[in-house]
Amino acid sequence: MTMTRTLPLLALLLAGCGADPILYPVPAVPSGDRIGVSVGSVEVLDVSLPLYADIEEITFEQVDGSLLTSEEVAWADDPQRAVTLELARVLGTVTRATVAPTPWPFESFAEARVDVRVEEFVAGIDGRFRISGIWYAGTEERDRSGRFAIAIPYHPEGGVRAIAIARAQAVRDLARVIAAQGL
């Protein structure tokens, strides 16, 4: 048997033997136009996710409204860490402020802090990735907060990759809301 025929066969055999999940990274998506803000630095606190969303296994909504995870597919990074980093990256890109996740890595204090508490974070049975909750943004001069409910459509035929892209777009949209209304 030639090497080109052996490798695909070996891959198939190994795929059937392993119990390890397939890991899906969340890609970076375009951040959009710049948003002017009144601060030069922002600390993003660890994003609070619901229990079902704070595990590596990807959660799917079922027809009856229940939530199901699969040991066969998982996020490539810890969800809380990944969402916090995504939020900080997009905020930094769209605002031009220095943005970092907690703990603040610089000697001087950040001019603003952002705290996000997520109530819903799920790939819906309706083909939309939904994220909702409340955000808080505070500076020495003012404190602001706001509720958010974001739903990004995805094509179920696209599988978990489509869900990952929708998740990235939802976090991007949340960052844009916080930049425009909170900073």
From TrEMBL:
Residues 37-179 form the ABC-type transport auxiliary lipoprotein component domain. Coiled coil: none annotated. Keywords: Signal. Residues 1-19 form the signal peptide. The keyword Signal applies. Pfam families: ABC_trans_aux. This is ABC-type transport auxiliary lipoprotein component domain-containing protein. It comes from Hasllibacter halocynthiae.
